[in-house]
Each structure stands twice: as structure tokens, then as C-alpha cells.
Amino acid sequence: MQRAHHRFPSARRGPLWLALVVGVSLLAFAGGRAEARAGGATVARQSKKALQHFLKGEFEQAARLYREAHRMSRAPKYLYNIGLCYYKLGRYGPALQQLRKFQLDAGSSVAAAYVHGARKKIAEILRITRLVSLDVEPAGARIVLDGRPPVEGPIAGQIRLRNGQHTLLVTHAGHLTVQRAFRVGPGQPDTVRVRLRRWSVPPRRRAADPGGAGGPRPRRRATTLPPHPRPRPRSGRSVVWLALAVTGTALAVAGEGMAWGLWAAHAGGDKTGNKTFGYLYYTGHALAVVGAALAVTGFVLHFKKPAERAQGRRIRWTPVVSAGPRGAYAGVGGTF
Length: 336
Prior knowledge:
Structural class: alpha+beta
CATH topology of the largest domain: Serine Threonine Protein Phosphatase 5, Tetratricopeptide repeat
Number of helices: 8
CATH architecture of the largest domain: Alpha Horseshoe
Largest sheet: 4 strands, antiparallel
CATH class of the largest domain: Mainly Alpha
Order of helices and strands: HHHHHEEEEEEEHHHEE
Mean pLDDT: 76
Number of domains: 3
Distance between the termini: 164 Å
Strand order of the largest sheet: 3-2-5-6
Strand content: 15-25%
Radius of gyration: 51 Å
CATH superfamily of the largest domain: Tetratricopeptide repeat domain
Helix content: 40-55%
Shape: elongated
Low-confidence stretches: none
């Protein structure tokens, strides 16, 4: 008696399913390794670019690239680099936060130099900075701290600032602008309060409306310019100054005329040994100098405005120069 052997279809397909699962697993493993290698290359490029920006002093760009590298790789060392970038930018609060996060995420795979550097940098930040609160009103005010990009208030919590002098500029529409300088350090207040005041515009005064809301309004008076003031007649003192000026002019002309006449009369004679000639000649020049001084003084006081004369009665000296054949003579005229 022969036995009948029955083979089920599912029994025949078992090895095929097993082979298919193993193949798919191998392909997924190979693809994952290839993707990991590609991702590692991208992270390396990002890290290299970030280092180049850091060495050039472009710390904002370096921090952005280090954040992208940490997002792709989750390596703790990039947190340390981000903290250094924030430290160089003077943003000590975010720098301290990144360095402390690095300490929490750092494991045995992180080099000891990174851990030691983070510990020293955290201690330095805590030593040179303080926490300060900025209490600014009203809400929505524009706050500029130490020339940094403006932020909109209010600022929640405290910010970490370096010890020393700082400036604060607060503006808001319809309010007076406030600029203040404050110090941060031991013994200094940890809160800076700024209250902006509104613009105060005095109300306009309106003329009373006798007719009420619908009544006739009073006419405005036409604005007329005051008449041009007439010139005042000259006082007697001005006439005196004019007479003095004329007298001085005549005296100057007479003195110079006498000196030049004597010189012409003794053109061929001895002038050095004639005492009479010398006395008369120099007397003529002296009269000319005195007359010129009187003329200048009289004319100045005559043409001077009364208002200026009334403001100050100070003596003003005017130089007078006279030239003759034997030399030049100088005098001074006083203005009273």
C-alpha cells in the first residue's frame, strides 16, 4: 500500500518569503549606512565652514552653521562651539545656556579638553556678568540695548550683562524718548526701570461763539502791519558833533597847509639850523593830527545811532595817521 504525500502551497513559499525578508533587510542596512556616510559628510562640511567663519570673526554665521551641524548629528561638541560663538558676540546668557547643556550631554566620547574648556568658560561668565531686569513701560516699546538690534518690550525674566557701563534707548509712538546709562556690577541695582511719558500738547484756545453751534461766528480782525517809524529829528548834541568834525577838518587842513607852505618857502635854504622853521613846521603837523582826531571823533558821534549811543558809553579809540615830507606821524582819536 502506497502512501500519498500532500505538499501544501504555503510550505513551498516559506523559503521564498525568508529570502525576500533577508534581502530587504540587507538593502535597508546598506542604504542606512550610505545615508549615514552622506550625512556625516554634510556635517563635516558644515563644521568646516563654521570654523572658517569663526576664525574670520563672523560669529553669527558660525553659530548658525554649528546649530545646523548639531541638528543633523546631535554631537555635544557643537553645543560647546555654539556657546563660544555667543560668548564672542557678548550674548552671555545664551552662551551660558549652551555650555551648561553641553556639560549635561557630554559623555565619555567627548574629549577632555572640551569639558575642561566649558568648565573654565562657565566660571568666567559667572565672574564677569550679572543678571539684570529691564522694567520698561508701556508695553510694545522699542528697546535698544548697547546698540544691538531693537527688541519689543516687555522683556520677560532677567538678562545677563557684562560688568561695566551700558546704554539703554527706549522709544514708543506718542511718547517721549528716553536714553539712559547704567552700570552693572557688584553693589549696583539689579533692576532698571524706564517709564515713558506721553506727549503733552496744550489744547487750542477757541474764541467764544455767541450764536451757539449754529450761530454766526465773529469775524477775524485783519492783521495790519504797524506803520513804518518816522526818522527822529537829530538832537542838539548831534549838531555839536558835526560842528566839531567840521572844525577838526578845517584845523587839519590848516595845519598841513602851514607845514607844506613852510617847506616850499624854504626849499632852497637851510632847514636844519633854522629853529623858527622847525617850530612852525612841526607845529603845523601837530595841528593837523589834532584836527584829524577831532574830525574823526565828530563824524563818528554824529552818524552813530541814538540807540547804540544809549546802550553803552564806552570810549573807543580811532587811529589817525598823517604823512609829511620828513616822515609819518600817528595819533589817536577818542569816541565818547
